[in-house]
Amino acid sequence: MTTTPLTSTSPNTDEYEVKCIAFFGDDRSILMQNANGPCPLLALANALILRNAISLPKRAIAMGKATFSDLVEILSNKALDDGGERGRSADIEALV
């Protein structure tokens, strides 16, 4: 019996295409969905990008793609920065 290797025809779910758009006269780099279905992390990231609250790493913009790790890091840093000292608990401090 012979087996054939499994191949994936779906896009890499760990990477998101970066697209530059004009938004109220400013250029913004947003993330594009890589698979069908809702993606609340992308929606949150793109909303914050459009509000100029976060930006993608220059490396991601230059390469035209961002990784899931990039996305989680950016959103985590934003959440921790916005929380300030009052938002930090001993559990968060232990993880940082």
UniProtKB/TrEMBL annotation:
<dbReference type="Pfam" id="PF04424">
    <property type="entry name" value="MINDY_DUB"/>
</dbReference>
<dbReference type="GO" id="GO:1990380">
    <property type="term" value="F:K48-linked deubiquitinase activity"/>
</dbReference>
<protein>
    <recommendedName>
        <fullName>MINDY deubiquitinase domain-containing protein</fullName>
    </recommendedName>
</protein>
<dbReference type="InterPro" id="IPR007518">
    <property type="entry name" value="MINDY"/>
</dbReference>
<dbReference type="GO" id="GO:0005829">
    <property type="term" value="C:cytosol"/>
</dbReference>
<dbReference type="GO" id="GO:0071108">
    <property type="term" value="P:protein K48-linked deubiquitination"/>
</dbReference>
<feature type="domain" description="MINDY deubiquitinase">
    <location>
        <begin position="15"/>
        <end position="82"/>
    </location>
</feature>
<dbReference type="GO" id="GO:0004843">
    <property type="term" value="F:cysteine-type deubiquitinase activity"/>
</dbReference>
<dbReference type="GO" id="GO:0071944">
    <property type="term" value="C:cell periphery"/>
</dbReference>
<dbReference type="GO" id="GO:0016807">
    <property type="term" value="F:cysteine-type carboxypeptidase activity"/>
</dbReference>
<dbReference type="InterPro" id="IPR033979">
    <property type="entry name" value="MINDY_domain"/>
</dbReference>
